[in-house]
């Protein structure tokens, strides 16, 4: 209990610091002014979301090979956490795009592929709600998770190669093109803080899922008795 | 059905557990069935009869424990299951004819002369005349005949039957009893689950009762035999 | 060898059952026909406009049709538990998938073959000069759809709401196929048509990637 409170405090501190850094340490962008500062949250969330989905994929693989419930618990936790961060990406994108591009949404390569990614993992979680029996649910969703993750590079590749006739974003079009070294540092620091948050969420979600699993067994035993 | 291509095979279950999401369908089942026995499993719905048969057929994997097929006391190893399986579902295609079904599965199993084998079995189960009719048009009793013919394609030494008498009319039931007797007398090992009273239970040489995934009674003959089977009605 | 002979036997069964009833082929063809007609109301189908939108709408219609057609693929094997009979009979369960995906590819190609002339006439697009290349794209695209669709229909058949689930699982996964085949097809519909090799290669990579995963994971999809 104490350890989790302590780690939560560390994460909050890191997030606060990264917030401070993105507002006061990173220099103001010459062309876009203040609004560009959302980039730190936006890009760091995207990276964290992908990290989470990668963890989900590894957990899916381990479940299929080892059949231990904990890999299923980790899989669903990482899937949900990744979805949270990807949702942040999809929300902060339009907030930034509106003042800069004058539109809320554009079918830009990255936005679109992130949207498809988001849909893939929504399907993953949806599938889980539709299979009653725990072992089967774990196996089927793990298998779908593997298919989905293999699909991710193909989605990004296809959209990037063929769907980029649209106006290119200025800073995110080619990473690093217009990014000042301090901005880079702030970005990586924000990512670190977000990874801390991800770990925290993942741990809590995992414990919840473990308890839910135990509860499910007890319930089924009671029903059978 | 009376050919003796197979070698008599027993079956041994060692500490079989089967869990479905934490729930036990079978709990530490240990059993040894010798070659040539005709065993009836009785028990309520959900007592684990079907699960045990599906594990013996190698359709389901036990959560822990080992199933081995014994050939004169020796383990036959992990070869293709020597068991023929008749489930409650027919396991044949309604959209294919009786003959096409048998040919399909004979070819898949790599049987030497599939056409000849299908021909023999169709005659033995009394479907030679309806061989070219779609299974969809068959009565329950005729479907059962196709199902049994399919299970016997590869001359199995062990035959597993999951509630084979359910839904059969009197004619079908007496045909089945006769078939079962032939199978038993040919030296095959038979494992069969029964839900209700049936005339075929008199053909059994051993009766077992399952309750909540465990074997609670096991007898060869005598007064117990009747009482175990009577429970099947409860 | 055993894999190929089992696949051939199973493929024969798939084709035999389908051509006996022609259920899948007729429903799919009618469905795509309806979609193509309805699509014409969403824009003015002049030759110029059709060149821009035609490829996309054709592929979208085919994707929807495929998600409809693939749905009974494993569901049909459940009614009489024939899937268990197959699992007991084949030494390599990949044969079950291989036969089904080859059959599904064939069914999709047949649907496309019937629809391409209708599409060409209705939308004023000339398909004849580049027909052989179109066939290649349709083959690679349909193969990819069949591989993933066959695998996912094994999953959706085991869930609740199985009739609704397959499109939800399948369509997002097929995004790369939609994008790549649309681009390649559009290039072939162009006023000065050309073959976009990058897209053809991409489709081949997609097919190969998912075929490999299916080969590795297939047996788990059928587990009891």
Features:
heterotrimer, B: 234 residues, alpha/beta, 4-stranded antiparallel sheet, 6 helices, 29% helix, C: 224 residues, 0% strand
Q: State the helix count of chain C.
A: 10
Query: What percent of residues of chain C adopt helix (DSSP H or I)?
Result: over 70%
Task: Give the tally of structural domains of chain A.
Answer: 1
Number of helices of chain A: 6
Q: Give the assembly state of these chains.
A: heterotrimer
What can you see in these coordinates?
- The complex is a heterotrimer of chains A (225), B (234) and C (224).
- By secondary structure, chain A is an all-alpha fold.
- Chain A has helices at 2-25, 38-66, 69-101, 109-129, 134-162, 181-224.
- In chain A, α1 runs antiparallel to α6 and α2 packs antiparallel against α3 (69-101).
- Mean pLDDT of chain A is 86; it is low at 169-176.
- The mean pLDDT of chain B is 86.
- Chain B is an alpha/beta fold.
- Chain B is globular and about 45 Å long.
- The relative contact order of chain C is 0.14.
- Chain C is built from ten helices and no strands.
- Chain C is globular, with a radius of gyration of 18 Å.
- Chain C is 80% helix and 0% strand.
